[in-house]
Design goal:
Blueprint: E1 7-10, E2 13-17, E3 28-31, H1 34-42, H2 49-65, H3 72-87, H4 94-111, H5 118-148, E4 156-159, H6 174-183, E5 189-193, H7 200-212, E6 216-219, H8 224-229, E7 235-238, E8 242-244, E9 249-252, H9 255-264, E10 269-272, E11 278-279, E12 292-293, H10 296-299, E13 300-301, E14 304-305, E15 315-316, E16 318-321, E17 328-331, E18 334-336, H11 340-351
Parallel strand pairs: 4-5, 4-7, 5-6, 7-10, 8-11, 10-17
Antiparallel strand pairs: 1-2, 2-3, 8-9, 9-16, 12-15, 13-14, 17-18
């Protein structure tokens, strides 16, 4: 089995797989500057909350490497500018800001030291970005380990969007849970929502599951409720883009609907996410900025119009699932349970 990777850092060069071209074409693009990183994130060449954070971290490395002939004041100033610029690429996923602030802190720590050259400072930032990447892969394996505990042996699992290796550094969050269950020998079946309008489920999740050899069926988004009603779904597992201090969770549009349907049909609904997806500065879901993208992505599929000329559309990219609909939040530190204000506060207090 060839491992799925969303990005490669090799000999000081950053490459990302163009996820818009999958599953039919595996095209790798080199990102040479923080500006090309910004475009790749904005235009969803690379997507998935942890993955865009990792790529942004390498965007800071690219900026730093271009500044090694300057002075340390200019390097710090331009790194700060690059951080703010990249933060604006997409607003909902908090991992982007988390990774950028970690890189900014590292730059401040290094550049205050006069005994470190600017070239060595750039190398230290490269090492930090690689740490973020490698830590993410290990975190996802731990999420899979804990998540496997709640997956029945012959589970029929429903997932939404793509929360696999393509959305992170490797292995996956929600798909990591599915993958861990499969690797444990459980006879699982996965129902994959197509996830309109960008079809991340149809194009990306099926691509990953096929390569992993996991039995799966692609379904239209509006089929999920009927399968639940018929008793054909045992558990729902999705990823997340931001989790607030009370457990409210932003994820790809359509996740909220699934959580309500799962509640109605007494089906456990789990979120799988690393701690970097938590934003405890936000009180609840109303505080989460929700991205609204261009209407063309709703009105066209593969460049072909699907509506009469002049039709207007709205493309709200994310929704918020209230904590009351979430059975558990699977993290690298274990599974959080309600009441989330208490379990999240306890978890983050223990890390201070």
């Amino acid at each position: 089995m060839k491992e799925v990777k969303p990005l490669i850092w090799k000999s000081g060069r950053l490459y990302v797989i163009d996820q818009r071209m999958l599953p039919h074409t595996e095209k790798w693009i080199e990102l040479e500057t923080e500006k090309s990183v910004f475009v790749a994130i904005r235009d969803m060449i690379i997507r998935g909350a942890p993955a865009i954070g990792i790529v942004a971290a390498f965007g800071i490395v690219l900026r730093a490497r271009a500044l090694t002939q300057k002075n340390r004041e200019r390097m710090m100033r331009e790194i700060n500018e690059a951080v703010e610029y990249l933060k604006s690429a997409r607003p909902t996923a908090v991992n982007l800001e988390w990774a950028l602030m970690r890189m900014k802190s590292k730059a401040e720590e290094i550049l205050i030291r006069k005994d470190i050259s600017l070239r060595d400072a750039a190398r230290s930032l490269e090492e930090e970005a690689l740490k973020i990447l490698n830590e993410d892969i290990e975190i996802n394996r731990k999420i899979g380990y804990y998540g496997n505990r709640v997956v029945p042996r012959k589970a029929k699992i429903l997932t939404h969007c793509n929360a696999g290796a393509l959305a992170v550094g490797g292995y996956g969050t929600a798909i990591g849970v599915i993958r861990a269950a499969f690797e444990a020998g459980k006879d699982i079946t996965v129902f994959v929502d197509e996830t309109r309008p960008y079809l991340q489920g149809a194009r990306l999740t099926t691509y990953e599951l096929k390569r992993l050899g996991i039995r799966h069926y692609l379904i239209t988004d509006n089929t999920a409720g009927y399968l639940m009603q018929r008793g054909e779904v045992d558990i729902v597992v999705t990823g997340a883009d931001r989790i607030t201090s009370n457990g409210d969770t932003a994820n790809k549009i359509g996740t909220y609907s699934l959580s309500v349907l799962a509640k109605e049909n007494n089906i456990p609904f789990y979120i799988a996410a690393p701690l970097s997806t938590f934003d405890i500065t936000k009180r609840d879901g109303k505080d989460i900025p929700i991205e609204e993208r261009g209407e063309k992505e709703v009105l066209y599929i593969n460049g072909k119009s699907i509506a009469p000329k002049g039709t207007r559309a709205r493309h709200i990219a994310f929704d918020v699932t209230p904590a009351r609909y979430i059975s558990g939040i699977i993290t690298q530190k274990g599974i959080l349970r309600p009441p989330y204000q208490k379990s999240i506060r306890k978890l983050f207090a223990s890390r201070e």
